[in-house]
Amino acid sequence: MEPNNQDFSVSEDQQALLEMASELRRLANSAFREARKGQSLPCLSNLVAMKPLHSMLISRLASRFDADREDADAVLDEVESDRSQPGYL
């Protein structure tokens, strides 16, 4: 039984990533089962279906990484500007 990916403690973006990852896993498991049975065409069909999903996941995660890096850079810039200004002791 597939676990329910609906978790209300995550953002909609995170939920979409989880659902895409779950579908990617389902396709990989199906490809494995079909390969084990010697069913080349169904196996190939699952593998081909994985490519666009794989690309979407990479794109979403890469944009998240860029956003996280920009946030980190902004925090570092703020820390650096605080160091250059005299503070109170």
How would you explain this protein's 3D organization?
This protein has 89 residues and is mainly α. It is 79% helix and 0% strand. The longest helix has 45 residues, at 40-84.
Outline of the structure:
The chain is an all-alpha fold and 89 residues long.
Which key phrases capture this entry?
2 helices, mainly alpha, 89 residues, 79% helix, 0% strand
Roughly how many Å apart are the termini? 60 Å
Total helical elements: 2
What does the largest sheet look like? none
Structural class by SSE content: mainly alpha
Overall pLDDT level: 82
Compressed to H and E, one letter per element, the order equals: HH
Low-confidence stretches: none
Strand content: under 5%
Choose one word for the global shape. Answer: elongated
Radius of gyration: 21 Å
Total strands: the figure is 0
Helical content band: over 70%
